[in-house]
Amino acid sequence: MRVLVTGVKGQLGHDVMNELAKRGYEGVGVDVEEMDITDAEAVTRVMENAHVDKVVHCAAWTAVDAAEDQAELCRKVNALGTENIARMCGKLDLPMIYLSTDYVFDGEGTRPWEPDDPVVEPLNVYGQTKYEGEQAVEKYAPKHYIVRIAWVFGVNGKNFIKTMLNLGKTHDTLTVVNDQIGTPTYTYDLAKLLVDMLEKEEYGKYHVTNEGGFISWYDFAKEIFLQAGMNVQVIPVSSEEYKAKAKRPFNSRMEKKKLDVHGFDRLPAWQDALSRYLEVLGERKA
Fold first, then answer.
1. Which of 50, 103, 149, 196 is the most exposed place for a label (fewest CB within 10 A)?
2. What amino acid positions are annotated as catalytic residues?
3. CA distances from residue 50 to 1, 27, 55 in whole angstroms, order as listed
């Protein structure tokens, strides 16, 4: 199996390429230099010449706050770029995995979001453009997985864990929001599931995070410092007290039963994922 992976410089694309190689598959990795997804001609040229069997589309605009000021640029990447890829997947009859987000929902309530819940009002510009990407995939790529994830961390790029570790080295006390609830997703674990999906044809929408229960960012920060053996006091604050340009979801709970129904293994507990991740970073002490 030969697989085109977009966004290979990002956290997830990097791990998908490694997982493909581990299983003896050939990953064809591209980032903006090799294939600008916003350029339809470039996408057509690269995909026609790549001779791949399947596509994992990880590339995205993920700067959530910056998207509020650069909505059209964000839309160009997340909606138009995804449409360009989806059209070619349809034309070439290629199965496609599109990575999306819980931000397509309005972030309210406490009930875990079901994969097939109707999307009514995305939370912010980022969420809206990722939803437009979903719509393009459904319209143009008949053989597709739409995989919504949340609270992502991996070796490549920036993430909450790296931010906490860096801040913890220069601060004795940190404030972290405690009214946004969800579960982290480790890209190493996610990549395994995505390759499992490539090996099957159980298409549709799925929600994927690590197991281990629902937590707040405050809970997550405390566990990070505990496992890293860092003596940092974490003080809970509300989202109201910690203003951000883009609105964040209070409810990032994801219902994952659909994975069981279609024979996919769930991801390990987030506490275990965090432990393994800190080990990779050389930061695990506890």
1. 196
2. 126
3. 12, 11, 11
